[in-house]
Amino acid sequence: MGFLKRLASVLTTLFGISVFVFVVLRVIPGDTITSSLGIETGVLTPEQIDTLRAYYGIDKPLVGQYLSWMASFLSGDLGFSYSTGAPVWDLTKSALLVTMQLALFGTILGVLIGISIGMFSARKPGSARDFLGQFFGLLALAIPGFVLSTTIVTVMANKFQYFPNGYEYMTPFEDLSMNLQQMLFPSLVLGIAVAAPIMRTTRSALLETVDKDFVRTAYGKGVKPRIVRLRHVLRNSLIPIVTMTGIQFGYLLGGAVIVEKIFALPGMGRQILDAINKREYATVQSSIMVFAILFVTINLITDWVYRKVDPRIK
Amino acid sequence: MSEPVLQVREFTVEFWVDGVWYPAAIKMNFDVHAGKTLAIVGESGSGKSTTAMGIMNLLASNARTSGSVKVNGKEMLGASKAALRKARGKEVAYIFQEPMTALNPVYTIGFQIVETLRTHFDMGPNQAKERAIELISMVEIPDPEGSFNKYPHQLSGGQRQRAMIAQSLACDPGLLVADEPTTALDVTIQAEILDLMRGLRTKLNSAILLITHDMGVVADMADEILVMKDGHTVEHGSADQIFNRPQHPYSKQLLAAVPKLGSSAKRTLPAEARKQMPVMKMENVTIAYPKRGRVPEFVAVRDFNLEIFPGEIVGLVGESGSGKTTVGRAAIGLLPIKSGKLEIMGNDISKATWKELFPIRRHTGIVFQDPASSLNPRLPIGESIGEPILLAGLAKGDELNHKVEDLLEQVELPRSYRNRFPHELSGGQRQRVGIARALALTPDLLIADEPTSALDVSVQARFLELLLELQDKLKFACLFISHDLAVVDILSHRIAVMQNGLLVEEGDRDDILKRAKHEYTRKLIAAVPVPDPEEQRKRREARLASK
Q1: Considering the domain boundaries, does residue A80 fall inside one?
Q2: Which chain B residues are Cβ-neighbours of A232 within 8 angstroms?
């Protein structure tokens, strides 16, 4: 029962997103014709425009357009990109790999950096090291991703003549070493953004847990301080940290759009951005739906991890 | 005599607070021998827990200790961290007050016992598990193998404390430090845990350092008693000496303040009182907490019948989860009833809306359990007390201030306290403010929900006296909810006993306390420890024999 309810709420969410994206795209001024022909559109006769609209399938009523898109989306056909003629799914397949790799690396780096600095800070609240940790947290929170990205690009390329992203993008299967070099900085930018809130959550959760009775019990049992900190304090602090990580993942997908553009990675973010500029309705809609499914899946995983971390949750 | 397991000499603990060393325990001297129990008793803030935590240096980092603490002849003060760690859990094991919070919620009790074992012994996981299951069965938790894999929240309160004890016994420690081991438990469970501890002490011949504020528990367990007040040792002697021939005035005062079952004078209510219209009447009342999301409806009280007459104090007793608080809240319309009939002052409020209840509220007042959390911390107490009067539109401005000051005087607080905030008052004073607020509208019915359970005995004694005086003067009816039979005994004309949401028995105080008909009532009364070692031994033997 619980599972069915959960599934129903997930499907409702996805339905809402699909309608929202569909409507927003059509509210933006301009359409596929104006964006592909530019000012030339003005010289078209109404008949030519009608023909083109029929060709692109945007002559039908909106509800009909929505239903036909949904029907094909659900059957696994994500439509075609008008500019390249390639099926959206083929584009998405490779782009999704890039974004997933980026998001995964970003999350791992963010969690590692965030928890380490949070633990570093919480060891002695109010001390210089705490100040240092908190300073990092604020700094990371305050610097926008695009500033950090462009700074890194500029400094690395100009001062060190090192800019792996200047070369053609390599998948990990083609050239693992190149791929990792190309992923390093974008992942770091995303990781730092994720690390800040995780660091703050970790710090406050640890400080709260450290005063709990069961921590005193652990010391009373003669358990070594390092083990008490990891096994008892950190383990109990994980609950808010997992929540925060789940929330941050949403931010990460959004942040990926900007970071992919700056670091020239052919990911979902760039694909959507380009498709919006070209008013490729099918590409944008389908890509965003894939994003949404990804996000909802991450949420389900977070819930599952949650249960593993806290046995009290049924 | 053999060498003591624990020898404490000139032991002092101080805390660094706002630039001053503040002493919490001063020059303590005591020994605990194998197979014996030393009880340190005292009220909150006396330094008894600090002493217990201090001997193994489990104190906060702003504490410093001096003197000497020897465990099995080895000096613990100033010992290296590694040496202390080795002794903790192995030579000195702790049993803490609230097992729900003292056990780690994300690990099974089996894991936690195994952790203790493997910290101190070179043991493989399987061997440790075997030993843990042995320990779990030793503390008589049902289904030891299954319980090994249970999390603390899956056990009952008593089982959790048993798990805590199993963990502390893991390494056969010579000394058990039990810090208020039964305070969070119901009396019947408390009796079981004390029996268990007594049995284990005999079986394992370990020494016990017992920290408690409950004289009944002390009478049940202690061979020797040390009385503390404000960090000082007030008196130290055998249990017999302290209970029967206390020397120090504070020990005498402490003992006198402990309410004793069956010792208070008979309280009579004029016969005509019960012929009047009852102030509150419940007929076949069922109260349920409605279904919330996935949490199903929970019926807390079923088919409950009770009448309270003008000027009468009815004690409502029961263990946690029996539904007594639910009855109290519903009685003044704070919780809706599901079925049955509820009348206040002759008005049927069974189906009353919030608006219809408003005028009824002038006739009722309630005192909550925890005075610290039931007063708004941002309001001066004068405003808290005056709020009901203001809301009822009875007075404002200077007139209101006068009324508030009169109320403060009634509960024996200085008039000037009107402008103080709750955190500036002691627990006992705060609870008096709670009473003053409840009495602001001179209600006909006062609900007192465990008003003394957060108070020290001497404060409680004074509070109960005050409540009786006020009741004599103002003649309000009162539903006094408590888990403590001795307290109910002092106040009540009548007593109602609840168990699992049902009314078990109800009748005149002496009928219930001396001639209880229902088995549960008798069990409850038998489980209350009395502050007299000789008497308590007899009661215990009678209780164990009847098992």
Answers
A1: no
A2: 104
Per CB-CB distance under 8 Å, the chain B contacts of A223 are: 85, 89, 115, 119
Is the CB of A311 less than 8 angstroms away from the CB of B102? no
What kind and span of H or E run contains B445?
Answer: strand B445-449
Indicate if A163 and A260 belong to the same structural domain: yes
In a domain, A103, yes or no: yes
**Number of folded domains in chain A?**
2
Residues in chain A with CB shorter than 8 Å from the CB of B93 are 220-221
Which strands form B232-238's sheet, in the order they lie side by side? B92-95, B175-179, B207-212, B37-41, B224-229, B232-238
Which tens digit of pLDDT belongs to each residue from A139-195?
988 988 889 888 888 888 888 877 777 777 877 788 888 888 888 889 999 999 899
pLDDT band at A301 (very low <50, low <70, confident <90, very high): confident
- Decide if A79 is inside a domain: no
Last residue of a domain, one of A18, A40, A74: A74
Answer yes or no: do A138 and A276 share one domain: yes
* A246 and A181 both lie in a single domain: yes
B463 closest CA partner among B400, B410, B397, B411:
B411
A220 and A109 in one domain?
Answer: yes
Domain that holds residue A15: 2-74
The B residues from 340 to 359 touching A (CB cutoff 8 Å) are none
d(CA B175, CA B90): 9
* pTM to 2 decimal places: 0.80
Same domain? A65 vs A92: no
Mutate one of A1, A214, A232, A237 to test the B interface: name it (highest B CB count within 10 A). Answer: A214
Spell out the alpha helix ranges (H) of A46-159.
Answer: 46-56, 62-74, 88-122, 128-142, 145-159
In the predicted structure, residue B547 carries a pLDDT above the cut 70 = no
Domains of chain B (ranges, CATH numbers): 262-363+443-516 (3.40.50.300), 376-442 (no CATH)
Q: What does the alpha-carbon distance between residue B175 and residue B41 come to, in Å, rounded to a whole number?
A: 18
Cα torsion A17, A22, A23, A24: sign: positive
CA dihedral B267, B272, B274, B275 (to 10 degrees): 180
- Name the DSSP letter for residue A270: H
Q: How far is B393 from chain A (nearest CA, A)?
A: 44
Torsion of CA B38, B42, B45, B46, to 10 degrees: -70
**Considering CB atoms only, which of B53, B89, B151 is closest to A221?**
B89
Mean pLDDT of chain B: 89
Q: What is the pLDDT of residues B461-471, one digit of tens each?
A: 888 999 999 99
Give ipTM to 2 decimals.
0.80
Lowest-confidence segment of A34-38, A116-120, B187-191, B339-343 by average pLDDT: A34-38
Other beta carbons within 10 Å of B210: 30
A288 and A163 within one domain: yes
Q: In what order do the strands lie in the sheet with B280-289?
A: B298-308, B280-289, B339-344, B347-348
Residue A248 neighbours by CB distance under 10 Å:
23
Residue A7 contacts by C-beta under 8 Å, 6 or more apart in sequence?
none
Confidence (pLDDT) at A1: 45
- pLDDT of amino acid A37: 66
Based on the fold, state whether residues A66 and A124 are members of the same structural domain.
Answer: no
Confirm or reject contact between B86 and chain A (CB < 8 A). yes
**A17 and A96, same domain (yes or no):** no
Cα angle B304, B308, B311; round to 5: 165
Over residues B473-489, mean pLDDT: 90
Domain of A226: which CATH number? 1.10.3720.10
The answer on pLDDT for A36 being more than 70 is no
